[in-house]
Structure formats: structure tokens, C-alpha cells
Amino acid sequence: MDFLRRLLGGNPGGGSAGSSSGMPGAGGASGGFNLNDLGGFSFGFGPTPGSSNTGGEAESAGASGNQGREGGFMFMMQQMGDFISGISSSFGKKQDGAINTTAARNAATRTLGADPTVRDGQRRAVEDSVQLADLWLNEVTTLPSGITRVETWIPRTWVENSLPTWGRLLSPVVERMNTAGLEGLPGDISEQIGQFTESMGGIMNIMNAITSYTFGTQLGGALATLSQQITCSSEMGIPLDSAGIAALLPNTIAQLSEDLELPQRDVLVFLAAREAAYQRLWTHVPWLAPRLLGAIQDHANGIVVDYSNIESATHEMGLDPEALTDPEKLQEAMSQMQTIELTPEIHYTHEKALQRLETMLALIEGWVDVVVQSAIGDRITSTPALAEMWQRRRATASQAEEALKAQAGLELRPRRVRDAVKLWTRITEACGMEKRDGCWAHPDLLPRASDLDNPAACIDRLLDDSTDSFEADLAKLEEELLGGDDGDGNATPQQ
């Protein structure tokens, strides 16, 4: 079932070539069982996503069939050993969430292979570019610099520093998917499973460990693939644990500038400015990271798994408990199941939470676009080409991002960045950068989703003097709560 594949890190709708349902045994020339027919539902066995290692196929290209099978078997046994070791090490250790980050880290290491070399000249170029860009940003924003250190990273460094954040972001979704999967089952089956889990707690712990390990393995492979395209630590628009550290990946930037046929120095300064702008938000807007995580948690709480289509299909097939004990009837049932759709429907009922998340991501990205454009302006001749390149890059999600979206139902590439850019630009022109940046002082002051459609309403609120009155009322209320005023304007002595 695609739902299980999604939970365990596979590709939704996936299966072997020639298999329409993705069910084991559906394809293959011989019609027999084929390990590849399991698709993503492999419990971590088989090639890691994003890896070029195909488990002995490359090695057997010029060898005999027996040698090829032996190589594939040894590779599978190695992965099985890693899987068992990973599951065993999970017991007795407290996980930070529903994702085994150790498994994710190991999978990323296998996928990435050897580390690229970063030369001293590249490090100096990164440091100089960040320092210059941060200096220019001082002229266009009231938020002070948030950089405490400049670093040059390689893909592995980005994975290591971003993995804790991804674990926190995706764990609520994975946990809810597990719970929602049981809640969506028909009443009698759900009740039986509930009784089973109470009496077989140890087995369920094992299953939870398997799910955690497998999802971690798939996440690690996806992040490793994504890391080879990342140019700076904040490119995904989410704060990492390395707040205050401006980090760029010079080897990736060099390849990007070559592909774009633009001066590498221009590309480096442009990306350094974006990284420095992000760091100002991560450092000086402390409520931003918890707010993002809270929106994802609200989104996860609204996940509902609907099995009604599966229930109807199995009812039409006439399945009953006795059929499960008769090998012939069971085989017949399995054959019928290969021809019908057995994917539960997943609904996201908290649309407002998802909208709030998308709005915040768009506002963050849009603000960065505006201040970077203002900072570098005519100072870099290729600024228009760089801005256009970034818009195209942002609009095109990579395969790794699509995999993360399929696993967690999250779209971390905001769709309304252009609207956010227009909003921040109009606010700057009408109200000045002080009021614009003052919107980050408190989440209630941040523009709303409706403001992306009607910037004038947001500008009117910012220009309205009632904002100052509102803050004064808050200060008065705080004074009253502390016993400094009796509510009639008369001071009362504090006890």
C-alpha cells in the first residue's frame, strides 16, 4: 500500500517497472517474487535514495550472472546487517522524535561518499563576500547583523547541521501519520488492533523502531541528495541550530556560476547577502523558529487517513477471516488485490495551519529578496540576472524536495513569494524600513495572508497612529496587573 510506503519512506505510487499496483509479485518476467517489486517498502534494504549504488548491478556488468547475484546478495546482506544494528541500537535510547536521526546520518554518509576539498582561497573569498554583503545590508535594514562566525561548508556539513531541524520539523507529521493510520481503520479492526497493542507492547515498540529507522534512512538519503544542490545554510528558508553562523558551500557555488555563465564573484556576493539577511532574522526574531514549528504541529494534528475506499473494495471482493486461513483463497485474494487501488486517502483538515505556514515562509523569503535587492542594487552588474535565476531556482523543486513533500505533505518552497516581495516593497515605499522591519517585533504585527492580496490594508494599519495607542494600552494593562494602578488612574502601593 502506498500509505505504508509513504510512512516507511518509499515513493508513493511506486513499484517495480511493469507493476501497476506496486504490490509484491505484480511484475517481473517470471511472475514470481522479486525483491524489487517491494518498491520503497523495503525496510531500508536496497539502494539508498539518491545513491548511485545499485547493489552490485554495476559490478556485475562484465561478470557472469552468478557473480552478479553474489554481489547483489552481499550488498543486501550488508544493508540487512546495518538495518538490524540500527534497530537494535534504538532500544534503550530516547529518541528526540519519530525519526531515527542516527539512521538518517548513516544513510546520508553512504550516499555522499568522499568529501570535496575546500581550498584556502575559497575560504577567504567566502569570508570577504559575507563581510562585504553584511556591510551593505546595514544601510537597508534596521535589524542588526546576526553573524557571529563565517564558515565554508561541504554537503556533509550541511546535512549534519540541518538534520536536527529536519527531525523536529518532520517528527510531528510522522507521529500523526502513524496515529491517523490507526484511527482511520474500520471500527472493529481498530478495536482489535488496540487490544493487540495493549497486550503486545513489546512488538509494537519493535514496529515503531522499524518505522523510525526506515523513515530516518529515507530522510538521510533525500537530504544527502538535496545537500549537493544547496548553496548556503539558509537556502531552504528554515532556521538551523547553527544560528549566527553564516555558511556558504563554495564548490556548489562555483558550479552554479559556471552553469549560469556569470562571474563567480558576483554569484558569491549575491548568495552571501542572502545568507547574511537570513541570519539577521534567525538571530533577532526569537519567536520565528518556534512559530514555524508550531504551524507544522498544527498542520500535523489535522491529518486524517480515510480507508473507506479500501473497505469498499475488500467488501466487493467478499473477503472474510476464513479466507485468510485457506491458501487457495488467500492466493486468489492477493491476485484480485493487484488489480484494484488500495491506497487510503490522506486529508489535511487544518488548511488554516498550512496557510499560516506558507504565509510565514513567503514573508521570510520575500523580505530577504527585498533587502538583498536594495543592498546590492547597482553595485553588481549581474544583479538582474541573479535575481531572475533565483526566481527560477525557487520555482523548480528538486527530486529530493518532492520526496520530502510526499513523505510529510509539506511544501517548504513558498508559492506566494512574488506577492510577499510586492507587499514588502510597497510597505518600504509607503512607511519606511523602520516600520517595515518593526513588523518582526511580534507575530501579531506580521502581515497576514490577506495582506498578500491587499497590501493597502496592511499599509493603512502601519500608518495608523492607533498602533502606538495599542502599545500604550498594553503597557498600562501590564502596569495594572502588577498593581501599579487600580484601573481608575489612581496609583496603588505595591505589596
UniProtKB/TrEMBL annotation:
Region (Disordered): 8-29, 44-71
Segments traversing the membrane: none
InterPro entries per record: Zinicin_2, Zinicin_2_N
Gene3D superfamilies: Zincin-like metallopeptidase, N-terminal domain (1.20.150.30)
NCBIfam families membership: putative hydrolase
Protein name listed in UniProt: Hydrolase
Source species of the chain: Lawsonella clevelandensis
